[in-house]
Amino acid sequence: MTEEPSKLALFTDLYELTMLQAYFEEEMTQEAVFSLFVRRLPPQRNFLLACGLDTVLNYLENLSFSDDDLAYLASLGKFSKRFLNWLRDFRFTGDVYAVSEGTPIFTNEPLLEIVAPLPQAQLVETYVMNQIHLQTLLASKAQRVVTAAQGRLVVDFGARRMHGIDAALKGSRAFYIAGVKATSNMLAGKNFGIPVMGTMAHSYIQAHADEAAAFAAFTQLYPDTVLLVDTYDTLAGVRKVIALAKTLGEDFQVKAVRLDSGDLLTLARESRQLLDEAGLEQVSIFASGGLDEYTIAKLVSANAPINGFGVGTNMGVSNDVPALDIAYKLCEYAGQARLKLSPGKSILPGRKQIFRLTENNQAVKDIIARFDENLPGRPLLVPVMHRGKRLVAGRVELEAIREYAQQQIAPLPSHVRAISQASPPYPVQISSELSLLQKKIKEQVAIN
After folding, report:
1. Is the Cβ–Cβ distance between 115 and 59 less than 8 Å?
2. Alpha carbons 3 and 54: distance in angstroms, whole number
3. 3 state DSSP class of 425
4. For residue 344, what pLDDT band results from cuts at 50, 70 and 90?
């Protein structure tokens, strides 16, 4: 599946279009600023890994309404001919400021801000939230899995149980950015250039008269394969691999055995002992089956002789945190900062910038400031699109994003990088100027 951004104009909520028509009739087309941010981090996340910007920029560059789209809207009886004619020429002509993909972000920090005529910035809300939410959620989960593995191989096995094709494809990309080595998802490999890896299914073993025959047939076709040994009895399967090695002699090239069920710690130890005693120290052990960062961390801390992990459902659906409290809110219109004071859903007004301060090569705190402030630290929001066209900062190759992510995670304090809850959490402050602006707008809202 290759996404066609030009056909996604109607991937929006109805109220975006009814508001658009209202803006059109009221001639409210001045410049607006919308900010995308996560209101609060889940307790199980010490930070989030920004992801999905490339998808969003591709959508914005190609956004338009087709004749079929307009015919459908006309059939609803909710939109005037004048408005539909206006939509026919609709294009995104605004600017986008964003943190680079692979940047760790925290509570209330803008992942991106869109500066565009109000109708344009409004319409794209649904798509922007959908894609940044999904990919940031999954990259953040995968980063924890990679952290737990402590340098051991991690492969994405999640496609079959993820929530639809789009999630599986975008997820594979997000996982790779987060440090996952490869994916079993062939279409993701083709579309994004991600390395692909795989083993074999139990059905292949079952389809043969016996397990040993299945191993022999598969290794004849794929000599350096990984053999799945737990279809019937794990240790018996390992012994059959050893017998195959004796039969093949110097032609034996099997890379690993895969454990997919049972007590992985005990089975890994016993399998390792059997393989070593047979002189097969070069054969690795690869584990899968219901894994996540917590189970992997336990295996690693117990010194399980496991060289790699295939991680599927729990990473693919971010099982412990299936959603983020992400929001896309108007914070400025017609040059005037705007505010929302709903309980538990307040926002920071105006265009913003994030400054990340470091000391001795370690990140120590972030400051959310007004966009035109000049504070110590590295500004994280950079221009990635101008007048509807990508800038250089919005055209980054996947390998560069992956490398950047590791570079940005490394300076975080060790307790923030850990998979246990950070105490204290990473500090995020609001600048005095932004605080004053927020107070001023609150007072104005109270008067009105």
Report:
1. no
2. 13
3. coil
4. confident
What 8-state DSSP symbol labels residue 100? Answer: P
pLDDT at 423: 96
Q: Which amino acid is at 426?
A: Y
Q: Answer yes or no: pTM beyond 0.90.
A: yes
Task: Answer whether 96's CB lies under 8 Å from 57's CB.
Answer: yes
Strands (E) in 168-263, as ranges, are 182-183, 226-228, 256-259
Q: Which residues pair with 383 in a beta bridge?
A: 97
**What CATH number matches the domain at 5-138+321-447, 3.40.630.30, 3.90.79.10, 3.40.50.2000, 3.20.140.10?**
3.20.140.10
Position of tokens 């939410």? 133
| CATH 3.20.20.70 at 148-316, yes or no | yes
User: Does residue 366 have a pLDDT over 60?
Assistant: yes
pLDDT at residue number 276: 98
Rounded alpha-carbon distances, angstroms, from residue 5 to 16, 124, 255, 297: 18, 12, 42, 40
Residue with more model confidence, 443 or 299: 299
Overall residue count recorded for the chain in this entry:
448
Burial class (CB in 10 A: 0-12, 13-18, 19+), 99: buried
H or E, element range at 401: helix 398-409
Residue type, 420: S
Please give the structure tokens belonging to residue 281: 């120290």
Report how far apart, in Å, the C-alpha atoms of 141 and of each of 110, 135, 136, 145, 222 are: 20, 10, 9, 7, 33
Predicted confidence at residue 1, as pLDDT, reads: 43
Give me the percent of the chain exceeding a pLDDT of 70: 99
Residues 333 and 118: beta-carbon distance below 8 Å: yes
CB of 211 closer than 8 Å to CB of 240: yes
Place of tokens 């016996």: 210
